[in-house]
Amino acid sequence: MHVGRLIRILSHSMRRHNPAEMIENKDLTSMQKHVLKFILLETIHRDLYQKDIEEEFQIRKPTVTGILQLMEKNGYIYRECAKQDARLKRILPTEKAESLRQPILHSIEEDEAAMIRGIPKEDVELCKQVLWQMCANRKKMCNKKDSNYKK
C-alpha cells in the first residue's frame, strides 16, 4: 500500500473521531469547532492572530474573517489590539471557550495513547521524524509547482 494512502486512511479516521467534534454546541459549525480547538491549543503557548488561522487551515482571509466574526458573536472568542501593532488583533478564547479546553486536551491525550499503544517509543519518534520530512518535501514540491504556475 502506498504511504499516501495509509496517511489518508489515518487522517480520515482521525477526522471522523476528532476531539473538536466533542464540542456539542449547536451554534458552531464543524469548521468553527476545528478553529476553536486550534485557538484553545495554540493560545496555551503563544499569541494567535487571524493570519495564523489562515495559514493553519489554508483558507483565505475573508473566510477566516467570517468564521471569527460568528465565533465572537456566539461568545467563544474576543479580539484585542496587539501591544506591538494596534492594527493586529490578538485572538483570545472567552470563559465559555476555556471551559472546553480541558475536555479537548483530555480527548487528544486519550486518542494519542490509543494510536501509539503497543508501539515502541523509538518507533513513534522515528515515525514523527519521517512524517515531518514528508511534510517538508511536500511543501517544497507544492511551492515549486506554485511558482511554475505563476510564470
Automatic annotation (TrEMBL):
Transmembrane segments: none annotated. SUPFAM superfamilies: Winged helix' DNA-binding domain. Residues 1-136 form the HTH marR-type domain. Gene3D superfamilies: Winged helix-like DNA-binding domain superfamily/Winged helix DNA-binding domain (1.10.10.10). Keywords: DNA-binding, Transcription, Transcription regulation. It holds the Pfam family MarR_2. PROSITE patterns: HTH_MARR_2 (PS50995). SMART domains: HTH_MARR. It comes from the Bacteria. This is Winged helix-turn-helix transcriptional regulator. It comes from Blautia wexlerae.
